[in-house]
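Can't attach files on this board, so I'm pasting raw text. These are the components:
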Amino acid sequence: MSNTQNALPEPGAPMGHFVSDLPFDPNEGEAQNSAQARFAQASQRQLMWWQFRKHKVAYWCGVFLFLMYATVFISEFLAPYHQDTRNSDVIYSPPQPVHLFHEGAFIGPFVYGRDQTLDMETLRRVYTDDLTDVQPLRFFCQGDSYDFWGVIPGNFHLMCPAKGGEAFLLGTDRLGRDVLSRTIYGARISLTIGILGVTLSFVLGIVIGGLAGYHGGWFDAVTQRVIEVLQSIPSIPLWMALAAIIPVTWSPILVYIGITVILGMLDWTGLARAVRSKLLSLREEDYVLAARLMGAKSGRIIGRHMVPGFMSHLIATATLTIPAMILGETALSFLGIGLRAPISSWGILLTEARSVNIIALYPWLLFPVVPVILVILAFNFLGDGLRDAADPYK
Amino acid sequence: MITPRITRRTTLGLLASTLLAGRAFADAPLFEADLAAGTLPPMADRIPLNPRVINLPGMGRETGVHGGTVRMLIGGQRDVRLIPMNGYSRLMGYDADRNLQPDILAACDVVENRIYTLHLREGHRWSDGSPFTADDFAYCWTDVLNNPDLYRSGPPVELTSDGVVATFEVLDPLTVRYTFATPSPDFLPKIAAPLPLVLFMPGAYLRQFHAKHQTEEKLAEFIETYSVDDWQGLHQKMSRSNRPENPDLPTLEAWRPRTAPPSEQFIFERNPYFHRVDQAGNQLPYLDRIVLDVASSEIISAKTATGESDLQTTGVDFPDYTLLKQAEKIHPLKVSLWRRTQGSSVALLPNLNCSDPVWRKLFQDVRMRRAMSVAINRAELNKVIYFGLARESADTVLPESPLFKPEYATAWAQYDPDLANALLDEIGLTERGGGNIRLLPDGRKAGIVVESSGESTLETDVLELIRDHMRDVGIAIYTRVSQRDVFRSRALGGEVQMSVWTGLDNGVPSAEMSPEHLAPTMPDHLQWPVWGAWYASGKTEGDAPDMPEVLELVTLLDAWRQSTSTAERALIWDKMLSLRADQVFTIGTINGALQPIVRSARLRNIPDEALFGFIPTSYLGAYLPDTFFYEKA
Amino acid sequence: MIRYIFMRVLTMIPTLVLISILVFLIIELPPGDFFESHIAELQALGEDADLAEIEMLRERYGFDQPQVIRYLNWAGGMLTGDFGYSFEYRLPVNEVVGDRLWLTIVLSVLTILFTWALAFPIGIYSATHQYSWGDYGLTFLGLIGIAVPNFMLALVMMYFANTWFGISIGNLMDRQYLNEPLSWEKVQSILSHIWIPVVIIGMAGTAGMVRRLRANLLDELDKQYVVTAKAKGLHPKKVLRKYPLRMALNFFVSDIGSILPAMISGAEVTAIVLSLETTGPMLIRALQSQDMYLAGSFLMFLAFLTVIGVLISDIALAFLDPRIRLGAGSSK
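---
Top answer:
Structure tokens for the assembled complex are below.
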């Protein structure tokens, strides 16, 4: 402000200078402290992470899942026995509780030895703990031999029973195999089927949904119809039919891949729909127009400009479909199609335990349902958290 | 001549004496109302003049009382066929000792195993009251079996011998005769089978569905009503007696159907014209009603354990025994264990017609089969799966059969891995590869793919155990589950290396029964499907067996089919059984497995120990369920 | 509006045709056919198949003809109401389905009602008390329904219902009422049995619906008009009821489309375990034995129902939501 003239200048004369030429500091005004500065300058990813962390349950579920998937790599090491190790003398043995104190003295983790008697009246095997036979558990020990990932032989275990003894923390099944070990091995198949299947449907969903949403027209109409068709038919018959095509002679690994593909191939519709509707609205944005004008192909526009905008949303949705895959696998096992012995997955373990006999007499065989529940719950909470965090500016 | 135990005279005398004693026959209370109303004739007029008399005290059983309903659980609508199988009313039937007795027939004359004269009972009536006479046989023979519209390729093969159809004559209203050109000793066992060769049909009822005896318009009406496509379908649907789905079809069984499908519950009621009586003159059956409830096969054992079944033989297996035994304390049930009659509960069948030349040569080498057989630790299988209560044995007949010899059961059935190793080395499989598995002559690992239909955990468990046994002698086993329907065609095509199935169907044969299951006769014998197809085609199409031992079996079977004396037949059986024991065509593991039989604690006359199987005892049939009864409360 | 309905019905037709082709493929795809598996099954039971009759059936139903002809025959038949013949039951398909159908409908309707009744209050509570313990707790409970495999839950519940309450295992009613006409005792028996499958199937649907409702409500609650209403002094509950809830309601309507197939599918496994007299077990058995007409026609029927359901919900939605009626076009 300044030397404002009281009178208007003469016509034709230059105007006064209205902008102050005093020194000027653009950051003056509200000075920010460092925390605020970090916040304001944080990238989108950072913001999502912070928002996610606020959702405590989701955060811890994420940690839990991370650990579960980590066990997949070292199943052989974690399981006290190999998945096929069996002992005809300990069939249907109930879980052996781990004790720490024996007759008042602290010994460390151990189990009591077991005696088996046959009840010929009811044809049942009866097990009683022998309280004099203390079998301390060993850690970081050498036990059953295995082929690590089917390739490298080894026999190093996290925990093993005492030499010459047995430690069935969760009991045994009808052939005398350890339930805990089989559950740990089963995680490998069940958890990875979910991830791989979802990845497949993810890719399919984005590609198809993206093209449909962006281009519209006949492609969209056709896709809409196909999605409708796939969603109208009950999934179980579809699975049954597709699973029945898998040739019998395929090795278990190939069957596993086949089942994964099947589960993934039928699941992309939900994702495709979400992508499509998002793209329909985003299509009108200016940056898309700009990209088109600059000559970018539709693939690049979709992939590079539009999708990353709501990728986080998609990831959240995908996370929520993994549980459906895991359950789908158990349902298929139940119906007798898909994976079968000698692979062990949680679905197969549960299918073997599905008679009333088991529930009434040998309920410990139902244990694999616990990790199924935990993993599915964890995925659900994680997905919730991710979705809430996906829009960090809320 | 095969005569019944009690002659006509004795029976008439018995009945007469009861009459003289002033007592009327004890008729079923169920019929009281009908008798009073006059819609049902009195018992004396309903049973044949010479009914079949079942002497219960003579069998060690009690005389029963009329009344009661028995509930059974079935896995699906098709299991209504269990009623004619359990009811077991046949022209000739097997009794509990597996001897043939005339049942519907009063007597049967056999000449040279070729000429069969069947004598019917006088006064025998169908369940609707119409007379049961030779006319029903004539109708079946002329209008059905020999009618090209209904039987396109001619009458069933059981009525032919050497390709020539038998001749049929009616001698008088109560006598018919079947004459074969050459001996056909299989005739009687076939009419005594659980799914019998049908020789008679209720002509009076069925004529209305036959094109020869009915107008076109009426037939068209029926076709419309019963939702079939043509009169053949109509006739078949209405006449099907081994699946009692037509409540109007007259029957000779103890119980007749009252419910038409579809339904979740099928009710069978006593047949007022049933031809059997007990020694006290009561008309059988004792039980008024049998109710079949459809339940998913998953929960049949659970439902039985909660008391929803009064008599259960299907859907409950050995692993369910513990639960059922515990249920005895809570519900009025009783559980017994009968022995199954299969030659082996689980048998390995190497495919001698495998298309892979290396494996075919190996499987056809008897040393290979013997080696695999002695490599199996049957004692462990018995302990793990059957609590040690079954019998370790090769795939052969059971000790309960008169043809049994101990050496059949022990032939190559001992657990001797050293011998197995020695035999395998002898064959030349001395090289070992990874995992200590032997190598085949062409360098591949000796890995056998064993296929199963995957429906029983029993098979899966046994294979798990056998896999370890085989690995110890250097053979790797891979299990594959094959879909049932393609199993057969793949086996026929030679794509299956080894299958797992049950062993001999009939483990308690007598010399009179056909040894056709011992030789390759059908394409669904999984150890030699191609040779079986050859035989089934009348030895015209396909490859004949090229193994002399198998050809020997075929020759012996043909000899049996032409045999004329029991001694001859027994000899043939002997030869065939010892040949099989020596050659180990099928590798048996366990037989004499135990089958839980659950019944209401109030049901009587059910043996505590017996043999259970399809052939020849027809599940409960040979044990005369019409003599089961509820004890008075 | 009429134009919208007309267009929707028109587009339904190609969908149905596509579905019928897909269904036909589903049945035909697995190798073998009914007769093979039937024969094999009989042999597994130790009986010789009634081979002559089976051969005749095979010939009569033209199983030697090429697939295209068979498809056309079947599809054409369905249009005239002839759903074909079930080889397993040896009856026309209509008769086989019979009673099961209305029981299935009863079960489905009850389950949907159960799901709504549960999801509604839980969803609202979750949305308005986000991140609270109540929110987590209720979501957890709902998720149990999803997390536990259906058949496991069914088996366990059935067993405990029997040991604790003495309810007979499985089925929808006690055996004596099976073929009897409807009576008060029969209804009571059905009710005492039906709650198990309703709860099992319903819980799975509930969790999903709760989550979707919660998400939608949360979106709405953040909108400007809600803020305005609150600023203007309206009681929060009233705000909730009057505005966002209405928006959430139309979500229920649109959700029918997605619930139906899920419900019918999920119900199948449960129905098998519990041996319910619904169409689920029948369908699965038909698929396993490749009883072509029964499986195919029934699947077609189910798909048709679903498509109709979606159509109805779309139309209902169009009534409720003018934005859809005036429709943002989808082509460029």
